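User: I'm putting together notes for a lab meeting next week and I want to include a structural view of one of the chains we've been expressing. I don't have a solved structure, so I'd like a prediction I can at least talk through. The sequence is below, exactly as it appears in our construct file.
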Amino acid sequence: MSIEPPFVEEGRKLLKNLATQLPTTVTGLERQMMIGDVLARMDEADKERLRSLMNYFLTRMLSINASDIDMGGYGTQGTIWYRVYGSKKPDKTMGQYAPDEMNFLIQSVLGERQRTFLYENRNLDFSHMLYLENGDFRRFRADAYFDLDQLALNMRAINNTVRSYKNLELHQNVTRVLSLAGTKEGLCLVTGITGSGKSSTLDSIIDANNHAVDAHVVIIASPIEYVHKSDRCIIRHREIGRDVLSFKEGAIQALRQDPDIIMIGELRDPETIMTALEITDSGHKVFSTLHTASAVESIDRIIGETPPVEQERVRNRLADTLRCVMSQKLIPSLDGKRVMAKEVMLGTPSVRAAIKNNNTGEIYQMISEGLDQGMTTMEQDLKRLYLQKRVSLENAINYSNNKRRMQQLLQVSPTEG
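Assistant: Thanks for the context. Below is the predicted structure for the 417-residue chain, given as structure tokens.
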């Protein structure tokens, strides 16, 4: 580790000094609000010292290729944690901090309105910018929240460049469905657990359309991550809480903005799901995400999220509008990094019929038999990665949705897996 710049020690001393000024009798939310009041009265020089210390932690994050940084709250035990290629570990070289020191540091990156929102809701999603010495900048997706009365923070680095669409390794039929040039309307979903790269995949798809068709794209996200530069498309970026109040509001408003493509960051509630289906019904191309591990689970989730009296109508509407579901996972690769495995379902006539007739249990078999059409199950794609010597046998089995099916495909016994 190189010698620390002088401003790091200055920032640490300032945090210690600030923390000792707080009375021990004030606890919980009142203590956090007191910290906010101190920061609001702080002079610019001290604010800059705290900002420099936070930027030091973020610069370290970039230098070690970390995807995430965690700090504050009871859980971190006063240390800074980084996630590097999937593994989250504490970095003792970054120092040890008392709870109030972290409370001050985390609140120092927030504006007054953001602090008020955090106090009221006990959680705040926001974006943060780091300006580098060479004139470049990096953006971070951030979430501040409470952990046993103390403030905790996670920040995820947002790539400055978009992953090449070709690197998604998709069949030409899938590309036709995802491209506005090939299909003018319909709902396309990218699904997976948190941290599986859904946003990066959607940005690759938007970027491919931006350079291929003349159109208008409206992105509604919480927060906006990658900022696209308009090429052949006008691309609007609308961040929840800053540019628009909610996903639902943003989607409804987008209809009056003459869009060709609407990207809704997440189908997180029944209202947003219904709105997305209505927009798709009106002849627009809609991209969105779900926190689901497979295509079948995604369909069942959408239908299950809506009220029982609406489910038959939603099932029919989904059957008519769903064009593609891509469910993805990031798998530890043999080179010590991570590689994407994906399940791809297309809205073929047989898939549409299965959704309409409430026979979603048949869809997995349809996907497994649809390789020529561009479809693939998670297990088939994991087998491909294993045969290409990109992932281990153990990880191919462990990351599959259907371990028995995975073992059959790889012709191994359960004991070997």
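A couple of points you could mention at the meeting. Residues 264 and 288 are 5 Å apart (CA to CA). DSSP finds 16 helices and 13 strands in the chain.

User: Perfect, that's what I needed.
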